[in-house]
Structures are given as C-alpha cells and as structure tokens.
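Box S2. Input/output pair 1.
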Amino acid sequence: MERTPAVPHRIIRLSETGSTNKDAMRLALNGEPLPLWVVAERQTEGRGRVGRTWVSSAGNLHASLAFRSLAPPASAGQIALVAGVALFEAVAAVTNLGGRLRLKWPNDLMIGDAKAGGILVESTLVPAGDLIVVAGFGLNIASAPALDRPVTALTLEMQDANAEMILAALTDSCHRWLQLWDEGRAFSAIRESWLTRAGPLGQSITITAGTQTLSGVYRGLNDEGALLADVAGRLETFNFGDVTLAGSMPSRPKER
C-alpha cells in the first residue's frame, strides 16, 4: 500500500474518563469538528462487546476516533475490520513482535494466542443522512485485565513501546486505511489485508452468538466481512458473535 504523508490529528487528552467512546460520540453529536480523537490515561467504565465493562488501567492505550462517513449504514460493520488492520499496523511499526501479531474476528488483536487489544465500533445515523462513527481502541501495554481466556500486554512481551508511541502510529494508520476503504467502495482490499493478518484457515474455534455456542473450523470471511466457519460439515456465516480459539483457557500473564 502506498503510504501518504502524516497528517495532523485533533486530539482531546483526558487524565480520566468513563468511556472515550461515549465522550467522542457526545462531542461529535454536539457539533465538534471531525475527525477527532479522544484519549484518556485511565477509563473507569471501559466497554467491550456484549456489554462487558471494566476499569482500564493507566499505562494502557484508551483512544477513540470519531469521524463522519457517507458509507451506507449496512457497511458500518466493515469499519471494525478496517480498524483492526490499522491497529495491527501501528503495533507492528513500533515493536519487534513481527509474525507473532494476528487479528481475530471480529475485533481482537492477538499476540500468539493471547489477546492484547480490542476494538469497539459504534455508529449513529444523523439527520443529514450520513453516519457519525466512533472507533474505540484498547491496547494492553503496561498491564492486562483478567479475562476468561489468555491475555497479555506489550510489557509482558518485553516491548518498550508506550501509549504515546502507539497513538502516534495509530492516528496515521487509521487515516491511511480509512482512505483506502473509501466509504466501503474498496472493502475487498480491506478484506484481503485483514485475512493476511489473521490466523490460518482450518483452525478450530468456538463461536458464541447470542445464547448459542458452536464449535467449528475457521474458513475465513465472506465478501461482506462476516465470519465463515465449518460447523458439523456445513459452511455457516456469522455476522456477529464472540470467537474463542480452540484450547484457549484462562491464564495468568507472566511476570517480567
């Protein structure tokens, strides 16, 4: 991908807040010029998929990008994949993790089989007919929260990158990849870029969608970015859900 020159980014910095996503959406709906980043040293009401909440510790990255999009509302789900590629690129640029980084559908950044970061995308259709989109990024840098699956942080992987270094790389990578996405018109390129950064086809996974939990085999993404999995010999399509890698069990992050 051809790289464009770095551009200035408007950033609001907070020492502590409930949720950078909530702040970014509120500011956007109140008329704040976009695009806009909201970054906090600490979150007290961090949010993830299916309503999960947690306290986000200082030293980690808690950042949300608010921007306006003319993409059809049905294309908004693609933005999580765009954001995932951008986060992958930013972390790869300032660490030596190399081939250990990978993406897990729909919104996780992994180091090996351990979760290191996540993305939460929210959007609102405004009267003008376009979307206000907020893409929230959380990256474990100094510490990792306790989850029901393996987790890690950059410091636990002997990486010296800090939140400011990651943010500087992330603001530029988000700008580039959103331009390439082109309001959904070039999603095929995003899909291919995401797939090259994800795990291998054929890996065993567990998919939790609503109240249903299924075991299957990862088969990639369809043309719209939905997960494809072989479940009991049938190719199934998942537009939402939570994926766990086979064999993933709760783990305690190793000490430095």
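Box S3. Input/output pair 2.
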Amino acid sequence: MGDRLANLNEAINSIRMQVGTIEKTSAIYETAAWGFTEQPAFLNQALFVNTLLSANELLQTLLTIENKLGRKRAIHMGPRTIDMDVIYFNNEVLVSENLIIPHPSMYKRNFVLIPLVEIAPDFIHPVFHKSNTMLLAECTDDCLVQKKINF
C-alpha cells in the first residue's frame, strides 16, 4: 500500500541501522498478490543480511520496523505497507510459536524463490537438502514475477 518503492527503501534503511550489514540485494520484482488476490501488486526483494541478532531478535526487530512503517494486520494476507519474512537463518532449523525457519512456504512461492536464487543460488535448504535453484526449478507456482529495478 502507499508508495511501495519508498516503503521498501525505508525498510532497507531500517534494516541497515537496526539489524546489520546487507551483504547482497536482489533486483526488485513486481508480482501479483498471492493468497488474498483482490489487492494491488507487490514489490519483492531478497536481502542477505549479516547480523549479530538471534533469529527471534531478528524477527522482533523486523516486526518493529513493519509497525513503524504503518503495517496493519487487518486481513490475513491482505494489503499492507510492508511485509518482511525470515526465509533462512544460517543453516538453522527452528520451530517455535512465533517463528519457523526455514520459512515453511518459501518453496511454494516463486516470488520468494526468484529473488532468492539471484542472491544465493547454491544455498542448500537445511530440511529439503536442495539448492534454491533446484527449489525454483521444482516450484509449480505460476504467479507472474517481473523484474522492475536492478541493483
């Protein structure tokens, strides 16, 4: 919602200040809404971030950044100013009440996999034991993902 690119840039700046060093960034991609489809297209980008935070501290920091950027959770998968997910955290497998790593649906979504392959094509999913490239090749999601801005 709102100025999507400005929201994304503000989120990236907040991540730099509060989370750690951004080592790699994918291009920005535009995709049709996934799940709740009666809403405008999303911008998506993958970041590789080096942080001293724990996985749970990272999640809490990202949620705080989302809130500061006006994120409202009125409709599940509904319109929002920003949405940040932790896809991987090193090679950890974590299942807790608030956080599951690797992200449990990432392998089903080409809007996650396409930018992820751009920054970490050979990273091996610690549960499936397949590279991100292999996961993308096996993904059956037909949602259109269009590159908008290169970095």
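Caption for Box S3: The longest helix spans residues 4-18. The domain at 4-149 is CATH 3.30.70.560 (Alpha-Beta Plaits).
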